[in-house]
Amino acid sequence: KLGNLGKKYPVCLPHLPILGSLPYMNSTEKPHIYFTKLKEKYGEIYAFWMGPYYSVVVNQFSLAKEVLVKKGKDFASRPRVVTTDILSGSGKGIAFSEYGPQWRMSRKLVHSTFSLFKDPSSQNFEKIICQEASSLCEALANTQGQSMDPALVCFLAAANVICQFCFSSSWKQDDKDVKIMMNFSDNIIKTVARDSLVDIFPWTQLFPNKELILLKDSVMKRNKLLEKKLKIQKEKFNIDSVNNLLDMLLKAKMNNNGHLTQEPEITDEHILMTVGDIFGAGVETTSNVVKWCIAYLLWYPQVKEMIQKEIDQKIGFTRTPVLCDRHQLVFLEATIREILRIRPVAPLLIPHVATSDSSIGEYTIPKGTRIYINLWSIHYDPTEWDEPEQFKPERFLDKNKEQLIMPTSSYFPFGSGPRICIGEFLARAEVFLFLSWILQRFDLEVPDDGELPSLEGKFGVVYQITPFKLKFKLRKAWREAQLSA
Ligand code: HEM
Ligand code: PLO
Q: What pTM does this model have?
């Protein structure tokens, strides 16, 4: 199917008609790790047939930058597959929608809402996150040093920040909706965008399929919950006072109804899906990063002590951390950067699709090719990183351990170019504040059964950590400071 005259294509894995390269590929390993191994044999860029889809894997940062930035527009679309179509109402949100006016407008409206929340005068991110950090610490203190799974409290904290952003509302600590949400969200991650059989051969959805049923059911529950929120908020809507993402979308919809502008139409479903993407991304990414950090700090108590020493010296106990402490708490910042390297949230980003005939390096790439950017091999490239398998936050610090540095450009945990993550600012602020608040107050200890977290993780649209337990113990220094205050 590829035209051959005078063109050079990336090396391709062996393949058969219909099944493509699948019979030759190892399906038991995590895809990003398998792709990194194939780099040894096939090189930095190679191709394979995923069933009928011609796909290219990019394992090296300058080639990846060419795809994402230099020729960003050529590669800015997304594949339409069965599972993401179910999640996004056939590509109506942002993350899984094809490159075009609809996607551009949704992104723009989210950006404008972000600007609202960066404004220091009103309800800004810093205030909202600190409020949630405070509730989070309160909930942790209430566990009284008992072994516990941090998943629910992390989920709630992240969910409330994003709920303020989307709807100007939040959930109470013991609201049963939160557990329900965590459950369906987990089930969506288990089943969506994993290149499962239905995504490769859409006709297989005609057969009974447990995963697909679970996905449909979970998406239905999610949509119901969001619709409930939307309905309440809609009643409060006032076009002269735009306070959150939903207001912003409703206003755009009203302005657009007269069709005076050239903008694409906004339907209720577009609104629901855009909010759904921001909600899902806002909760699942940051709560996971916080959990990965906690797990690594349990394994590396000396790193935890370095961070706490820095907090004690630069902040003390008379006030809680704020965003501008980021310049001072360089060891914590370095640790967060290292976590995003060693356990990237999206090890293969979200697949990209070529919108036109193009090229990567010396290779021809036909329109419609799926591009997997293997962030894992980029973050573990031994020619760019010293001992990439090792967890070493210091690699992001200068010799004196006073300044943050970027040791190589082979690093982009949020992607790059037109499809770069929209939430980077919020995510970094949230992870920093949650962790600094926690570590100022608590020591992290292994649970009663003495078991350390597994650092292996589960591959999916979000590279999740497997559930684990630990104890949060109020620090002696913190308790003493509270008593003398
Ligand atoms: C896309 C990383 C948090 C919203 C992405 C992509 C990555 C990423 C790698 C895909 C880029 C690509 O396909 O080229 C992260 C990480 C986070 C994080 C590491 C946390 C540490 C967030 C948050 C939000 C968010 C908090 C929302 C508030 C989005 C959206 C997209 C996206 C909407 C899709 C963009 C598009 O397709 O145009 N993110 N993200 N992310 N992220 Fe994030
Ligand atoms: C997470 C589960 C939610 O229930 C639905 C959802 C929506 C948007 C997705 C998000 C999930 C996972 C993380 C994604 C996000 C869009 C951008 C983000 C894929 C599936 C990343 C990291 O790329």
A: 0.97
